[in-house]
Amino acid sequence: MRILLVNMPWGSTDVPSLALGILKRAVKERIPGAEVEVVYANIDYVDWVQEHVDLGVEDYDFFAQQSFTEGNGDWVFSSALYDDPSWRRRQFDERMSGGKTDQQMALCHRLHELAPAFVGELAGRIADSAPDVVGFTSTFQQNVAALSAARQVKRLRPEIVTIFGGASCDGAQGAALHRLFPFVDFVLRGEGEVAFPRFVDTLAGGGDFGAIPGLVWRDGTGASVANAMSARPLAPGEIVAPDFDDYFQRYASSAARMWGDPRLVLESSRGCWWGEKHHCTFCGLNGSFMEFRSKSPQRFLDELIGLAERHQVLDVFMVDNILDMNYLTSVLPALTAADYDFRMFYEVKANLRRSQVQALADAGVVRVQAGIESLSSRVLSIMEKGVTGCQNVRMMRDSESAGIWVEWNYLFGFPGETADDYTSVVEQFPALHHLPPPGMVGRLAIERFSPYFDRPELGFAELRPHSQYSLIYDLPEHELFDLGYLFEAPPRGIDAAVADRLAAAAAEWESAYPDSRLTLCDLGDHLALVSRRPAFDWTTLRVDDPVEMAAMRLLDRPHRPAALAGKLGVTEGDVAELLRRWRELGLIFADGGQVVLTAVSPANQKLRRVNRHAGDQAAPALAGEPR
Hints:
Layout lengths: L1 E6 L10 H13 L4 E5 L1 H9 L7 H10 L5 H10 L7 H8 L5 H27 L4 E5 L5 H14 L4 E5 L5 H10 L5 E3 L6 H11 L9 E4 L5 E3 L18 H8 L11 E3 L2 E2 L2 H5 L15 E2 L2 H15 L3 E4 L12 H7 L5 E5 L6 H10 L1 E5 L7 H7 L5 H14 L2 E3 L1 E4 L7 H8 L12 E4 L2 E2 L3 H4 L9 E2 L2 H5 L4 H7 L2 E3 L7 H17 L4 E6 L4 E6 L7 E4 L2 H9 L6 H8 L3 H13 L3 E4 L2 E4 L7 H4 L19
Parallel strand pairs: 1-2, 1-3, 3-4, 4-5, 8-11, 11-12, 12-13, 13-14, 15-16
Antiparallel strand pairs: 5-6, 6-7, 9-10, 17-19, 18-19, 20-21, 21-22, 23-24
Helix pairs in contact: 2-6, 4-6, 4-7, 6-7, 13-14, 14-16, 23-24
């Protein structure tokens, strides 16, 4: 049996598809003689479109990541889905023109016009190769491109079997996609390592599709039948290592290679151990399976090093939703001791201690998403984040000291938040200008599978499908509700005026960051601080008073003032005066009754800021990620 697995735009071009690499390996291991090829149509698109448009990496990134909550990438391919190069262009212009540059609007229009031609050419190549099965992975902005290609393939060769899978096919979404688009023969919901080879076997042998968990299929009457999804997530030993050979072969001959070096994409775990205890109210990323499962340290190390050696690539993007804390004393020390120079991205929880952050850096972790989302302890408690504002600042400070870049977004719009939750925090932003600024400030979007979606009593009882979907699909609202991942509701939390002040302060932070500095060097008999931040006119400070030195050392970790006074053996009044003076100097961050020192260790931070994001096409940062 010949199987093509297709990775459509707007999948990132600088990493292979982990999902399709896993499925390729799973089929080859379980079905001897099966021929499986991964088609990187996203890279094909980059090469094809260069003949018509000067598309750069920033342009591709705009559709793949930056405008995810606007749906621009899906809208581009809606013209191919509905055979109309001007599909809902007027509605698109009315909704989008105020928030985009003329150049961005012109690019959207041109790519929208070109999409049918690319899809037609791709579908022709797929049909000519005469596969038995064509599988499409769909995550985020790949859905409409994949639907368009599947539709054209079925037009050309109706006997070819089409099947969809991926994050956009989880739960009700997958059932809706199958029900609404008759050219999609099957949808597989959930993890595919076991189910997809079983589907291939059943297809070849005429077995019972009704026995495959998560499969959506059509019965003899043509009715869509959605099998119940598996109640048991895969055990770590059942998670298959990926086969990336097709990607690296294709990338080597593509114009996309000029955008940046390729990276490996891997997983060491699935699920979220924090979400099992306290599901963050806005997060829907784990879909149907929250249960945390982690590969054994040795198995993960073998996979990582094996793929790095095979493909001669040391840049690694880890897709785990959260780092297994046991890896801090197993995998990370092993990587530190190994004779490799990995550059890794990981998602972590923000309550790590300084020594743990340093362990990440020593092992080769250079970027993290720490799920910061806010610096207000009260808002963080509404989110069920399990951290405080001071812990988040400490995470940024210690990461800056260790040379790790922290990616984070500042979210607002939570039921129960007030302007007071932002006023004091925003006033302290100038003291943090030497730490990584938020990459985005935005009102949260409601995600499917999140508590805000599943539990209307939390504050969002009036949900409707995100407005982007009405620009893309020719479907009634109740069908869009089943198909969509993002939802809208009447605004909650702070008003526009407070949100504007937050965004303006964050923009000022971003502008000041490259040239700002606040460092502390502990020389034993005194502490030496250096500051270069626009809001503070001092540059050097020597602290040699024993009590003040002890206080600064204690504030390496967040403390309540009363606890600090007790440890120093002084009155709370003395501590209050000291903290007042230090706040005027921009040395501390205070929130939720806690205080933490903000100065980083001097270690050439400015050199580390050069080209920190060059060529990076990481996964989209959603207004609802715990990353």
